[in-house]
Amino acid sequence: MTRSEPDNPTKDLLRLGPDLAAVLRQACVRAGLDDAGARLIHHYANVVCLLPAHQVVARINREGQDDRARTALHVTRWLTEVHGYPATAPLPALEPVVVDDSTVVTFWTYYPQPAGAASPDSAHLGRLVRALHRLPAPPVELPQWQPLESLHALTAGPIGAAALSREDQRWLLNRIDEVQRDLAVLDWPLGYTAIHGDAWAGNLLWDTASADEPVLLGDWDTACFGPREVDLIPSWHAAVRYGRGERWAQAFAQAYGYDLASWDGFPVLFAMRDLVQLAGPLRRAGHGSAFAAALRQRLDGIKADDRGQWREF
């Protein structure tokens, strides 16, 4: 379901540790799947494992988001089965497996990525987001978009207290509140619809079995009802923060049909995306120096109002 990048600590094909292996085994037993030879292929917001016996991907969410997991399954089934939309597909008939109060496991189709192929780009993403935003409302009750709520909870909780100084923790909570207030008074010219919620190019995969659309949009845990602009900002943000450059944003704008940077709410949305991108390294800062260094760089850049390039995982 995801590409291997050996120099990337979130995608290093490490063996599963005993804790994750036990969680995965319990979930697989309850789902009627074989976990023999399971291996870790991605560990960031979620833990993503390959089950070679079935060529199936297991996504382990350790934050107890059972409702989010069910929404992701229902939305993607509606997208793929009713509309033929190129989304990553969950396994038929399997509901989320709730292992304990904080752990939910879902099972998905595995999409092997062609060796040596370039990653899908912002033009692919722009076309997929445009198609998504043109669909009718799904027959699923979507959560309302609540910007930065999860980051606020993460920062205010034990993870934030462990990863941040008390001064940084207070500053970040104040900044989150400030950006939330700014977002609350924006007019959204593109209107509201079902949105992906985290539509960045890292969630794209090649679909080598497709004769129609060779690129899929994955990772639907943040699907919700919200302003269309939310799905546009990641490409402009990547152009600046991850060194993709102006052509990256322009290609997305041309494919989607709208230049987000021409909107007067753009700076607020960019500031929101900056904060969103703290959640990953904040969540993993205690697991390695690379994550802690990325968190430090990003937070310092935001505090200094510096538009420099960030490390990417």
TrEMBL record:
Signal peptide: none annotated. The keyword Disulfide bond does not apply. Keywords: Transferase. Residues 55-265 form the Aminoglycoside phosphotransferase domain. One of its GO terms (molecular function) is transferase activity. It comes from the Bacteria. This is Phosphotransferase enzyme family protein. It comes from Lentzea flaviverrucosa.
